[in-house]
Amino acid sequence: MGDLNHKTKLGQPALYRILDANLDRAREGIRTIEEWFRFGLDNSEMAAECKNLRQQLAQWHSNELRMSRDTTTDVGTQLSHPSEENRESLEQVIQVNFCRVEEALRVLEEYGKVYHPNMGAAVKQMRYRVYTLESNLLAYGRHQKLQRANLYLVTSPSERLMSVVEAALQGGLKVVQYRDKDTDDHQRWKNARQLCQLCHRYNALFLVNDRVDIAIAVNADGVHLGQQDLPIAVAKQLLGPQKIVGKSTTNPEEMKLAIAEGADYIGVGPVYATPTKPDKQAAGLEYVRHATRHASVPWFAIGGINMNNFDDVLMAGATRVAVVRSLMQAEQPTLVTQYFLSQFTRVQTLRDRQIVPENTPADFS
């Protein structure tokens, strides 16, 4: 024991420098994240959690640790990596800083056990809180995108699948659901993986129809369930709390149950008869009006919606719409997407003024 204590004393300057450097690294990273919560997301709760973490770390950042700092002889100041020179997006800034904080906290936890009997345990709890904060941010970001989305594309099998989806994303589409009932699982996995990468490149949500396993395999943002699929609670347990689970509903009873079960959003329809759901009777605009009055989660009108009836659906109260054929069979998906998105703004203005617009869709065929 005496020899160990002697070695610890000899290594004290190095220990202090390690703790000082990683306290700085953790506090700086948390502050970077905190600024995004505060100014980027206007989320006071998560900003307050960051501030609390910084203050707890500051209590361990004693003068004796600070006095050990010697930047001039620190060989690490000359080490760098090309990836540190650029950031492609705000999301990457946050992701990089979460990684930096988590790494620094792990170092503080291990070396802190030597420095003080309580430091390791205290930092360990902070590390778990940062993990939770990161998960909450992922969930918050996905739900914010869902809240802001007006147009939702449900795909159908097509030789043009990738090109149509990318063209729609270029037009401003922010939610894509991959739906394919007939293709073999291996091809479905390949398609889903490619579509997921494509959507994330355009900062859009990617969901998988029915198949929770494929959604997990490709790291999709969530799944969309039908009435005969897995219960919402089971899907959430498998996917994790940060992912999105939506559900199709065809009447007020199904809507009420889906919301009670914890659906993050619901589909409302089919508004009109559609070959996508040949066994489903059209729910009509009355169900859209019901959703306008009673739905407490984001909802998308869906089913047979095209440029000829789009205004009618919006004037019935829909603020979000999902389409299939209108985009999948469009010759110019980018223009059709832009048209639909522009109509949301126009019809919302007319609705606010209680003016019913004439039905004059543009022709992009």
TrEMBL record:
The keyword Magnesium applies. Transmembrane segments: none annotated. It is an enzyme of class 2 (transferase). One of its GO terms (molecular function) is magnesium ion binding. Residues 130-365 are annotated as: Thiamine-phosphate synthase. Its cofactor is Mg(2+). SUPFAM superfamilies: Thiamin phosphate synthase (SSF51391). GO terms for cellular component: cytoplasm. 4-amino-2-methyl-5-(diphosphooxymethyl)pyrimidine binds at Q177, Y178, R179, D180, K181, N209, S248, K277. Residues 1-129 are annotated as: Unknown. It comes from the Bacteria. CDD domains: TMP_TenI (cd00564). The keyword Translocase does not apply. Residues 17-135 form the ThiD2 domain. Its EC number is 2.5.1.3. Keywords: Magnesium, Metal-binding, Thiamine biosynthesis, Transferase. HAMAP family: TMP_synthase, TMP_synthase_cyanobact. Condenses 4-methyl-5-(beta-hydroxyethyl)thiazole monophosphate (THZ-P) and 2-methyl-4-amino-5-hydroxymethyl pyrimidine pyrophosphate (HMP-PP) to form thiamine monophosphate (TMP). Belongs to the thiamine-phosphate synthase family. This is Thiamine-phosphate synthase.
